[in-house]
Amino acid sequence: MIHIERIHHIAIICRDYQLSKDFYTKILGFKIEQEIYREERNSYKLDLSLNGQYLIELFSFPDPPARMTRPEAAGLRHIAFAVKNIEKEVTSLADKHVFTEAIRIDECTGKKYTFFNDPDGLPIELYEL
């Protein structure tokens, strides 16, 4: 068995780089750690952190294929972010024209959660602590 310490990062490929950059920084509040344009690939790589923890690499590539189905396609199903007050965060998202599904209760934990999508339709979950 290997000894994994923690998740290092999540890599996301987007279709519209500026739209996704604005979404993750201006709406979700991620901080830009580094932004690189790789001319040979015609691609940006944006390193994002939250509360001092490096979490997301946002990539742009020319004409990436669309996700085939969702959410039960093989591979990453969604990413989830923990919040203290889900109603407050849902209202904050709505104020920025990002709409969530109805808040549900996790039948195993009794905790509140909801889903919304990033600009490319990647499912994102908010889960109340």
Automatic annotation (TrEMBL):
<dbReference type="InterPro" id="IPR037478">
    <property type="entry name" value="YwkD-like_dom"/>
</dbReference>
<feature type="domain" description="VOC">
    <location>
        <begin position="6"/>
        <end position="129"/>
    </location>
</feature>
<dbReference type="InterPro" id="IPR037523">
    <property type="entry name" value="VOC_core"/>
</dbReference>
<dbReference type="InterPro" id="IPR004360">
    <property type="entry name" value="Glyas_Fos-R_dOase_dom"/>
</dbReference>
<keyword id="KW-0479">Metal-binding</keyword>
<protein>
    <submittedName>
        <fullName>Glyoxylase I family protein</fullName>
    </submittedName>
</protein>
<dbReference type="InterPro" id="IPR029068">
    <property type="entry name" value="Glyas_Bleomycin-R_OHBP_Dase"/>
</dbReference>
<dbReference type="GO" id="GO:0046872">
    <property type="term" value="F:metal ion binding"/>
</dbReference>
<dbReference type="InterPro" id="IPR051332">
    <property type="entry name" value="Fosfomycin_Res_Enzymes"/>
</dbReference>
<dbReference type="Pfam" id="PF00903">
    <property type="entry name" value="Glyoxalase"/>
</dbReference>
